[in-house]
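Consider the following assembly input.
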Amino acid sequence: MTIAAQGLTWGIPLLRLLAALLLLLAFAMLAQRRLLTLIHLLAWQGVVLAAGTALVALLTGQAELWFSATLTLALKAILIPMVLHRLLRRLQVRGDVEAVLNIPVTLLAGIALVIFAFSLAAPISALTGTVTRGMVGIALAAVLLAFLMMITRHKAISQVVGFLAIDNGLFFAATSATLGMPMVVELGVALDALIGFVILGIFFFQMRETFDSMDLRHLERIREE
Amino acid sequence: MISCLPLDLAIGALLLWLGLGLSGFLLGGWPTLARRLIFPLSSVVALLLTIAGFTALTATPDNLLLRGPLPALPWSFQTDPLSGYFLILLGSLAFAVSLFSTGYFQSLPGLRLRRLLLQYHGFLLGMGLVLLANNVFTFLVAWEIMALTSYFLVVTEHEEADNRRAGFLYLLIAHLGALAILLGFVVLAGAAMAQGGPFSALLHASLSPFWASTAFLLTFFGFGAKAGLLPLHLWLPEAHPAAPAPVSALMSGAMLQMAFYGLLRVDFLCLDALAPWWGPLVLVAGLATALFGVLFAAIQTDMKRLLAYSSIENMGLILVAFGLALIFRTHGLNALAALALAAALYHALNHAFFKGLLFLGSGSVLHGTGSVAMDRLGGLIRQMPQTAFFMLLGTLAIAGLPPLNGFVSEWLLLQAFLLSPALPQSTLSAVLPLAASGVVLAVALAAYAMVKFYGITFLGQPRGARHAHEAGRWERAAMLLLSIACVFLGLFPDLLLRLLYPVLEEMLGQGLTAQPGWWWLTPISAQRASYSPVLFFLGMAATLGLSFFMIWRFFGRPLRQVAIWACGFPVRTPAMQDSPLGFAQPLLRIFAPLYPTERVEDADSRWRLRVGDPVYRGLYQPLNRIAFWLSAQVLRLQRGRITLYLLYSFLTLLILLAIWR
């Protein structure tokens, strides 16, 4: 894709800003103890993602990216956080998230991950040219941070949030680094995330019925000796 | 079409067997009809297969290609003298066994009978297909059919936990073996780029010595597992007693020989670039197996277990002969290799007949008395005179006494050993006589075990089971046929060697040299050694008759009647006779380190001696412990915590990313 001449002046820095915001939000999620705020952060990540897609659409002039941006906004910034919100109320989960590691250690590990991600992405960025340099690294870092969040939490809902955040990171990598994927791939990824979300939702209700709690540690009991 | 007659006939016979199995399954609602109809027909089909085998010996090799399930993998069949010889073995044994089954399975309930009919014929079909298979794919499919159907036959009486355990053990080792065979074929066929091609294409595989040896070791392991080679023999003494007698007869007589056939087909015909250490390896493994088998046969107290261990011994002898043939061929002495191979093939056929006979006879004993535990039997010669006579012939044959067939093959094997000084390598020719003495020891101990087998069961006084009845007509007919075969092969060995001529010619390019006449057996030259069973038999009969007459004439009167085997002392109770384990006491003392014995107190607070298997304790139990320990270590990974599992995948991801960056 080619970028219109006027876009170079302000478009690319704005895209970089959005990428930075995405990474910042990922860190915020890693540091956040409260489930409700976690969901809000996820919604904000969705908004940033939609804005990024819209920006790329504006810069490259691809009509279908507008469609993609709208879909992202509707799905990731509004619908899924709303459903999660309702889920939280229906399941009456207590607000606090209990972390396996304490927050500062987790954040330090997160910084290490970001450095690792950037060093990994360096050869790829060198290939992609000046425009999207750093984007791949940021997106990869967002994915790894979300993964780290899944590992360090006990509550089942934060696992879902982590899963969706991983999806966000991948999506951002795709749109920003390549300036827009084919629509089919995008729809496929979105569908995957949606189905995973539905399955996990069913799983929550099952789990609540069995253990009367959302704490994953209860699952230890059902392993085979 | 005349030229491809044997193959058509053989495939037709196998299809008929399949049809009989299926119709037997359908006819299961009328058990008597199914049994009386299917089994005799199955015998007729077996006869057809035998005829096919005979024609295949002289006809030109022939093959048939059918479209398989995948485009590159056709079904491929062939007949040549080698498979023809084994078809004769399978067909003639199946002929007698099916006749026997007609009477033997009369008390089997209908549902079980229909399953048995299906599995029995599937088993026969599988063995036949193994012999006809001409490519790797067909061979492996046939091999698995054989293994699976025989597993189901072993667990026919699956209510007893022991039988299920035996079946599982058998299935496990069969699969290990099949896996090794598969890998061996992968090595061979990969080199020849011929997965679907005929076996002859494997011959032209240009293998490096390392890969050739790998293929050899893998296939030797795999076929050895089926043949009951030493560390893998474990399933044999469990599975044979668990199966019904006709099935044991087939498994021991025919299925074990399928392993030998596989060795001949793959390791002898397909791997022609021999490494010099293969032959000695096979020979040593065979010798160890033979000695082990016979030492444990002698101490068994269950008829069928004893026979099973004796099968291990006989397979060991066959492998010794095979190893000797490999050694001779490596050094280019093809005439001697032909002699050793003839001994192996001859013994394979002999074993099929006398072991089949003995297993069938023990089945009759089981039906007649309700038990095959030797410490409950005794004196059956009076209640089952005909069975006892046939069993006597069988035991004499397996003990290797002239003029019966067991002697001939063992004599041929020893002749081959005696010619080993012709080998150019001095170490081998110095060591081989030692191996020969080992063979002689095994043969002598086999005679000891068989004296025990016959003496305890048929002579003396009944030990527990009192009411025995003679076997039925079908059973006796089958045993009669096998006895005749044993006597015939013993008296006219030259005829069989003539049959073997094309087989040896195919395998070595040279048969045994022509014989002067049918009554003399002269393997190499008349100056060295020759043997005439008929003359021997006549001389022996004359001497025996004469001395019997003399004793009877001069010392026969007055007669004093005492109980038999009492040495003239009045036996007060049957318990005063030698017990099965007591008979083996000398061996238990001499080879004490080999027998892990333990004394256990039974319900009547009597001490009983239980003898375990040293291989099981020395090899399998440690392996078992290691496997359990490893599993316990792996179990530590499984904590049931999702976060931990996520951590595993996260770390994996990071490490992979770090490596493939």
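The mean pLDDT of chain A is 80. Ask yourself how this observation constrains the way the partners meet.
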